[in-house]
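can u pls check wat happens w/ adenosine-5'-diphosphate
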Amino acid sequence: MNVLVINSGSSSIKFQLIDMGDETVLASGLVERIGEPAGLIKCTLCPGGSAENEIKIESEIADHQSGMRRVVDILTDEENGVVQNRDEIGAVGHRVVHGGEAFHQPTLIDDDVIEAISRNIPLAPLHNPANLDGIRVARDIFAGIRQVAVFDTAFHQTIPDRAHIYALPYELYQKHRVRRYGFHGTSHKYVTGECARLLAKPVSECNLVTIHLGNGCSMTAVENGRSIDTSFGMTPLEGLVMGTRSGDIDPAIHAFLHRNNGMSVEEIDQMLNKASGLKGICGMNDMRDIHAAVADGDKLARLALDVQTYRNRKYIASYIAVLGRVDSLVFTAGIGENDDIVRARSVEGLEIFGIVLDEDVNKQRAKEPILISRKESSIPIWVIPTNEELAIARESVSVLNDREN
Ligand code: ADP
């Protein structure tokens, strides 16, 4: 079965068409700048194969509907397409950011599910409406083809009360569902499954600390294959230091900035999400630029690296304390997979837990998982590439199979 995976943003649609027979990617691409005069569609057909074909179209894309239709035209193109018609697509899997407390699992989409995702809009005012746009458009274009919602929050619904309740008046949770939810769940779950396979253990017996370091960064404590704590909170702003997001700060800073720096709530929110993190400290948010600047003696770039990796270290240690027994640390995503310096700095000083990095292997690059700890390390350290699209496609197939059985 071919599964089309869609990640719909406010002005973009990322997509991948995957043949689930052998999990090959038939097409992968991005529709960008939807609603702007200069729209862009990039699509790679048969990526990595001998018939690889890159398509780039620049033209105005009025809305998600017309963007999606253009993608279908590319996929089904008589000459270069990868499927003959849309009936060769067996399912559409949608990434949905916020499932709130309603969704613990990927779910077959119907009107009630759409309604429930809409009810979570206050929790994710930027993401859920964009995800819903993608769902509505796909239901229209792929009428009759089953659609599955895969939630970023679902994996974390096993987190116990003690770890997800904020120490705020309890009625805020009762009235407004103010609590920690966690995100990046699809990625944490995927690398958990991959790590279990590498450790040759059932997932249900694996205790892991999974460390997703990309533009957004989060860490999860996985006990017996289930998330029991994670660094993101009610929104993807809490926790680790990210490219442009602050992660944990003293909540009193909000009031301080409002009173002493004349900032409105919107300005503070914007600053914490877009102008903080690595960028806030040193003006750069791409780790590659930061390393180049450090090499040139840029003190603020060094400070940004110090602050981020120190926070990583604190979280790793706290999750080891939470878990007691840890079968592996797992680094993943753009920085986690590629950046040996950040990895090394993030486990520095953790020898107290018997964690011993292999400095040489750590410097190697691979598209495959690699073990970067030394033999004597009591906790192995793995680098495992994440693959959220494949994870969404697999989850979609399993929902359909469950339905049929
Ligand atoms: P997203 O969270 O948007 O999915 P990614 O997981 O793709 O992000 O990570 C993007 C980040 O990964 C970039 O901002 C960059 O800092 C970092 N990155 C990518 N490649 C490298 C590399 N070779 N070395 C260091 N950092 C890298």
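The longest strand covers residues 24-32.
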